[in-house]
Design brief:
Largest interface: A-B, 65 and 65 residues
Number of helices of chain B: 19
Helix content of chain A: 55-70%
Number of strands of chain B: 5
Structural class of chain A: alpha/beta
Helix content of chain B: 55-70%
Strand order of the largest sheet of chain A: 2-1-3-4
Radius of gyration of chain A: 30 Å
Order of helices and strands of chain B: HHHEEHEHEHHEHHHHHHHHHHHH
Number of helices of chain A: 16
Number of strands of chain A: 6
Distance between the termini of chain B: 29 Å
Oligomer: heterodimer
Strand order of the largest sheet of chain B: 2-1-3-4
Structural class of chain B: alpha/beta
Order of helices and strands of chain A: HHEEHEHEHHEEHHHHHHHHHH
Shape of chain A: elongated
Largest sheet of chain B: 4 strands, mixed
Strand content of chain B: 5-15%
Distance between the termini of chain A: 26 Å
Chain lengths: 398, 411
């Protein structure tokens, strides 16, 4: 047991304390923040917020009521200028005092006919502002409360029949969370799995492995290494979650909606599925590392692993709209696609208990199998250089 | 010159005949061909049953119920059948119906609906995504009743304008702003360009690090100058990249014809033929710049693994245009676009985005090419200086101080 701890601790510290790891750890959150700022900036810079004009022949906007509340936090509301006739409006457009103007036809109230004249078509968010303005004025004859309700729409609170799962449609962005966490999970599995494979290949290449084996059993070595790298992955995960929590905390003070972000997934269940798949992939990577002859070859094989893990994302639409359909169920039984599929399904539906427990059992079985495979290939692959292990040897009798 | 040709030949032959190159060259079109065959079989022969069962989205409904505690809903609008939306006196009845699967979900409209705006929506399978889609019906019913049965007003609020858009600028073949192709076409062109340059440049990195690691480099340096070697390598690998691109796009085009589909692009979206020529020039120059930088990294790093870290930072200038791509596409002649397409390191990718998004003044293209060419020559010359025994032999880890010192020849 102490030897296992030695291997574990060595494997863990030598990655976590490395400059490259720390760099990757901290650069990702900063990079995300940077990207967010850049995209907000481009939207703000590339949107023309000069005034919009309108010519009303229909009499709807004789004494217009302004839109009071703006839903858009990034784009400022533009000024709306009324013109008596099209000649004035056109002159204003040509002298660039306005960026575009609308004309409401005399029969607008019945036909909705209207025209938009521009040099360069205004951004859709600007056009939405004018539509909101029109809607407000269409509702002027209604009682204030009714008008307000129609204008703002209904907030639906969607609940499962047993009331355990709930989603507020005004907080739709919570739907995105499971997708994002899936991507996070994959990237972490791959970085830490990659570390593991590197470590194995490297120690094999410089013959350290044979020396270690004189004093540690292969099983202990493999288990220690895998535990160490799963630890590295968890460290990464926790750090990023912490950054996320801090970002939500800080952002919530400026933009109210951010503080409404919450994850509607059952965390224990998620951990139960993620942990074995973590071990499974790490062990498979270690097995690959022990079979191949060099780092170069190992890299191309990792590519093969990544393919099935991404499959649920190719079919994300059918999975999300029909989370209990045959495709979703099938993918959650295949161990490599299971983690992402399950976390997606958990967010969108209730998975029957028997399915979920079966899936988790399958995952655990495969994880144990992969561990056995890793130790076995490792044992067989020792002292053999420049020669690949064949699969027949691995599964045949020793 | 003779030696350059030797290097060129060797590099070209050894790369093209290597197994991994051939496999990737064949695998990419191969896999897409298989996928297309599978899709077409699913689409035509097996009467769509299989694909429908496997890829079906949630069954379209469906009967739902509602419990109106506010007394708001008096009548249903004409379009909505009363058997599709059943009224229940209270929640218990609705829950019973839900448990018996008579309805797939129900709404509870609370007493204070008008002030709070909240409606509880209980679904058997939860599934908020399909749920959101479904709520449009009850929303319409609520609006209809709120506005006292004025159906034309409800419809008008849904679509306030039958808009006729008129542009005052005389534009030949105006691209439709709403069409997704307006964004997607330049985006695809840019993305392909980025990938092609990157793959070709990383071939260079692989080749240099491999030769450095097994010490062949030092032996080579005995009999020729670094510039000769670099030139030979760059031209050879550039050619390999070009072959790969041509093979893939050719295969893609062939598949498209085989599948009997035609790309029905309106004339506004067909790219001018001149873009091919510019594309070729920008690819060659951009590739030369990045391959030169990669070779420099390769000369300094102890092994391939260390190199990957350095290259991520190397390619940041190429990613910048990809981050700002919406600006480049929406305002192809704005200030940001101009700066990005003139600055040599971002130019190849940025210029392709602009060229496929709109018309670029010819002087800007030529100026950008000139700057890029000068940069390429400078980089290749200074990188050649890095292949000195001292830098090649030292096993020190890569860092950017060393890189820039070696690049500017300051040590």
């Amino acid at each position: 047991m102490t030897k296992f701890l030695h291997v574990f601790w060595n494997e863990y510290t030598r990655h976590v304390l490395r400059k490259r790891f720390l760099f990757a750890l901290f650069s990702v959150p900063f990079f995300i923040v940077f990207l967010g700022l850049v995209s907000i900036l481009t939207v703000v810079l590339s949107t023309d917020t000069s005034p919009i004009g309108y010519v009303d022949h229909s009499g709807l906007l004789v004494s217009p009521r302004r839109v009071t509340s703006s839903t858009d936090i990034i784009i400022k509301p533009v000024t709306l200028i009324s013109y008596q006739n099209e000649v004035d409006a056109r002159a204003a457009l040509e002298s660039k005092r306005i960026q575009a103007y609308y004309i409401l036809a005399p029969d607008y109230k019945t036909s909705s006919r209207s025209e938009l004249i521009y040099l360069k078509e205004p951004d859709s968010s600007i056009q939405n502002q004018f539509e909101a303005f029109l809607k407000t004025n269409l509702l002027t004859s209604e009682p204030t409360l009714v008008a307000k309700r129609v204008d703002q729409g209904t907030i639906f609170i969607i609940q499962s029949a047993d009331g355990k799962q709930e989603l507020d449609t005004s907080e739709w962005y919570n739907i995105l969370l499971p997708i994002i966490s899936g991507v996070l999970f994959i990237s972490i599995i791959f970085t830490s799995g990659g570390y593991l494979m590197q470590a194995v290949v490297e120690e094999k290449e410089n013959r350290t492995m044979e020396m270690i084996i004189t004093s540690v059993s292969p099983g202990q070595l493999m288990a220690g290494k895998i535990a160490g790298d799963v630890g590295v992955g968890l460290t990464q995960l926790l750090t990023w979650i912490m950054f996320g929590a801090v970002a939500i905390g800080i952002g919530g003070q400026y933009f109210g909606w951010i503080s409404h972000i919450h994850v509607g997934i059952n965390f224990t269940l998620l951990l139960l599925t993620l942990f074995p798949s973590f071990v499974l992939i790490a062990a498979l990577m270690a097995a690959v590392g022990a079979t191949v002859t060099g780092a170069h070859e190992a890299q191309s094989i990792t590519g093969l692993f990544s393919l099935p893990i991404w499959i649920p994302y190719w079919f994300i639409y059918p999975i999300m709209t029909n989370p209990n359909g045959p495709l979703a169920i099938g993918l959650s039984f295949f161990p490599l696609t299971a983690p992402v599929t399950l976390s997606l399904r958990m967010a969108f539906t209730e998975i029957p208990v028997w399915q979920l427990s079966l899936n988790i059992i399958v995952l655990f079985l495969f994880a144990i199998g992969a561990l056995w495979l890793a130790a076995r290939t490792f044992q067989l692959g020792m002292l053999r250089y420049g020669k690949r292990l064949s699969w027949r040897e691995v599964f045949g009798k020793a | 010159m003779n030696k350059t040709i030797l290097v060129f030949k060797n590099e070209l032959i050894s790369t093209i005949t290597s197994r991994s190159f051939i496999v990737t060259l064949l695998l990419v079109p191969g896999v897409s061909a298989i996928m297309m065959v599978v899709i077409s079989i699913l689409g035509q022969n097996t009467s769509q049953v299989v694909s429908q069962v496997v890829f079906s989205s949630a069954p379209k409904t469906i009967t739902e119920g509602y419990v109106d505690q506010s007394g708001l809903i008096k009548t249903l609008p004409d379009g909505i059948n009363a058997s599709r939306l059943i009224a229940y006196p209270d929640e218990t009845h609705a829950r019973q119906a839900l448990a018996q699967k008579a309805i797939s979900g129900f709404y509870v409209i609370p007493q204070d609906y008008i002030s709070s705006g909240k409606v509880l929506y209980i679904r058997n399978d939860f599934n908020p995504l399909a749920g959101l889609d479904q709520t449009r019906i009850i929303e319409e019913v609520i609006h209809f009743n709120l506005l006292g049965g004025n159906e034309s007003l409800v419809r008008k609020l849904n679509a306030p304008m039958q808009l006729n858009r008129v542009s005052l600028l005389p534009q030949t073949s105006q691209r439709d702003q709403g069409s997704f192709l307006t964004f997607f076409l330049p985006y695809t062109v840019t993305m392909i360009f980025y990938i092609v340059i990157l793959t070709a440049a990383s071939l260079m990195l692989n080749s240099v690090t491999a030769e450095k690691q097994n010490r062949i480099m030092e032996i080579l340096m005995v009999s020729m100058t670094p510039t000769q070697m670099l030139t030979g390598k760059i031209i050879a690998l550039g050619l390999v990249g070009l072959i790969q691109t041509i093979a893939w796009t050719g295969a893609g085009y062939g598949l498209l014809i085989l599948s009997g589909q035609k790309l029905n692009l309106s004339p506004a979206f067909s790219l001018p033929p001149s873009i091919l020529l510019w594309g070729l020039i920008f690819f060659l120059l951009g590739y030369a710049v990045y391959a030169g930088l990669m070779a420099g990294v390769g000369a300094l790093v102890p092994n391939l693994r260390e190199a990957s870290q350095a290259t991520t930072i190397m390619i940041i200038p190429m990613i910048i245009p990809l981050i700002l791509i919406s600006t480049l596409i929406n305002a192809p002649n704005g200030v940001i676009s101009m700066v990005l397409s003139l600055f040599p390191l971002t130019a190849p990718v940025a210029m392709m985005a602009r060229l496929s998004a709109g018309v670029v003044p010819i002087w800007e293209i030529l100026l950008s090419i000139g700057l890029l060419a000068i940069t390429a020559v400078l980089i290749i010359r200074s990188v050649a200086g890095m292949f000195r025994a001292q830098t090649l032999l030292s096993g020190q880890a890569f860092n950017f101080k060393v890189f820039f010192k070696a690049l500017t020849g300051m040590n």
